[in-house]
Amino acid sequence: MDKLLIESNGPLKGDVTISGAKNAVLPILAATLLGSNTSTIKNVPHLNDVTTTMSLLARMGCQITVGDNMEVAVDPSTMSDYTAAYELVRTMRASILVLGPLVARYGQAEVSLPGGCAIGARPVNLHIEGLRKLGASIDIDSGYIRARAGRLQGARLSLETVTVTGTENLLMAATLAKGETVIENAAREPEVVDLANYLIAMGAQIEGAGTSTIHIQGVDQLQGTTYSVVPDRIETGTFLVGAAVTRGAIKVRQTVPDILTSVLDKLREAGAVIETGEDWISLDMQGQRPTSVSINTAPYPDFPTDMQAQFCVLNAVAEGTAKVTENVFENRFMHINELQRMGADMTIEGNSVTIRGVERLTGAPVMATDLRASASLILAALVADGETTVRRVYHIDRGYERIEEKFHQLGADVRRAQDK
Predict the structure, then answer these.
(1) Is 249 left (phi over 0), alpha (psi -120 to 50) or beta?
(2) What CA–CA distance (Å, rounded) separates 219 from 203?
(3) Dihedral (C-alpha) 26, 27, 29, 30: value to the nearest 10 degrees?
(4) Is 117 a catalytic residue?
(5) Strand locations in 306-363, DSSP E?
(6) Sign of torsion, CA 290 241 189 308?
(7) In whole angstroms, how far apart are CA 347 and each of 222, 297, 315, 336?
(8) Which band of pLDDT confidence, cut at 50, 70 and 90, is reported for residue 4?
(9) What pLDDT digit, counting tens, does each position of 191-213 carry?
(10) More confident residue, 419 or 308
(11) Can you tell me the distance from the alpha carbon of 388 to that of 382, in angstroms, rounded to the nearest whole number?
């Protein structure tokens, strides 16, 4: 198992290139199952969750070819198994995304109840209820979701709460259903839009992706296509916060500023000078300490829960006092205890944490508890006196590609080592 060794090395400076979005590529890889022939997916990040998804598709009988620059071709025409087994699914909640495509295209699925980050219940009941309304027969037995169906039938699906993976699963299933499906209270995230754009490129008829109501007119079949995954807005935000906390100046390339508006607004509020182009963002703190900013997480287009931990670090070393409120997931303050070990002045009250900024943190041995929390510990280490050791970095490898190399490009002292 690996660990990261980090020492503060002054402000981050330079350019960094953003990888494809984890939260877009996973549903897109699942959606390749809907095609009658090969899809080639470009801008695929090299992440543990991507490797797990490709292993899952290969186990089902798909032919997987990995080309240069992690260009992944998936041929589902050799599918022979419709099971997502526990040993693969247990590490990754997104594995539930094969349920909709399997039921819609092949009329059967056995998917183990998923694992992934331990940040709350994140129930799959909305996926199951929606598929039942589309005509699937579903039972849960011995930890597996077992589904059977003839051709699915279009229906009006009103989601009780906003769910990204639920919206994606039902969107994929509806593309091959007979007639029209309407998804109400749909997630509006850019990754949902990216999935819809891929499905449209395959021949699906979809309108309204990116709004709270999506209309899908089912078609008889979908064809494989070539598609490039949207850049990762959370990776983008993580590096920008890294520059902000270290009082640095960086330029982030191959990104999409338009889908990060809420984060950029908060960084400006913290004192950052930000400029944007079509596919780049520059941030310059002009050597100044950031100012505290209060945030409330909410579904897109509001402030993303996946940036909450990073902004806790920003506030930990900012001037002033801020309140961070988590409205999307329960149990998503597990990084707070680790940050307190590094000298952060933080008090949790229910789903909020009050943060009183200090000038510097102190290096310490810390443990990653989930994907975004692990990123926040790296950011904290960049502004801590002495060495910080971050253990359980497999969490970070699930969602960030070559993170120590990218930070090194910006001048940070971040090294990977074997944890004996």
Answers:
(1) beta
(2) 8
(3) 120
(4) yes
(5) 321-325, 345-349, 352-356, 361-362
(6) negative
(7) 52, 18, 12, 9
(8) very high
(9) 999 999 999 999 999 999 999 99
(10) 308
(11) 9
pLDDT at 412: 98
User: 182-191: per-residue pLDDT in tens?
Assistant: 999 999 999 9
Please choose, from the candidates 94, 113, 109, 183, the residue with its C-alpha nearest in 3D space to the C-alpha of residue 147. 109
Among 16, 103, 117, 256, the active-site one is 117
Residue 417 corresponds to which tokens in the numbers above? 């080592």
One-letter amino acid for residue 45 of the chain: P
> Looking at residue 16, what is its pLDDT?
99
Give the pairing type, strands 280-284 and 249-253: antiparallel
Give residue 124's pLDDT. 87
What is the identity of the amino acid at 64?
I
Going 257 to 252 to 288 to 360, the CA torsion angle's sign is positive
The order of strands in the sheet holding 137-141 is 83-84, 108-112, 144-148, 137-141
Tokens of 175: 């593309």
119, pLDDT greater than 60: no
Residues near 285 by Cβ (< 8 Å), separated by ≥ 6?
Answer: 11, 243, 244, 246, 247, 248, 249, 271, 272, 273
Choose among 302, 300, 270, 299: nearest CA to 286.
270
Please report how many Cα atoms fall inside a 13 Å half-sphere around the Cα of residue 320, on the Cβ side: 13
pLDDT digits (tens, 9 = 90+) for 67-108: 988 899 999 999 999 999 888 888 787 889 999 999 999 999
At 420, the pLDDT band (50, 70, 90 cuts) reads: confident
Contacts 24+ apart (CB under 8 A), 357-361: 357/292, 357/315, 357/316, 357/317, 357/318, 357/319, 357/320, 357/321, 357/322, 358/316, 358/317, 359/289, 359/317, 360/317, 360/384, 360/385, 361/316, 361/317, 361/385
Both tokens assigned to 316:
């930990």
User: Of the candidates 346, 418, 414, 347, which has an alpha carbon nearest to the alpha carbon of residue 374?
Assistant: 414
- Residue by residue, DSSP assigns 91-102 as T-GGGGGGHHHH
Q: What is the pLDDT of residue 121?
A: 54
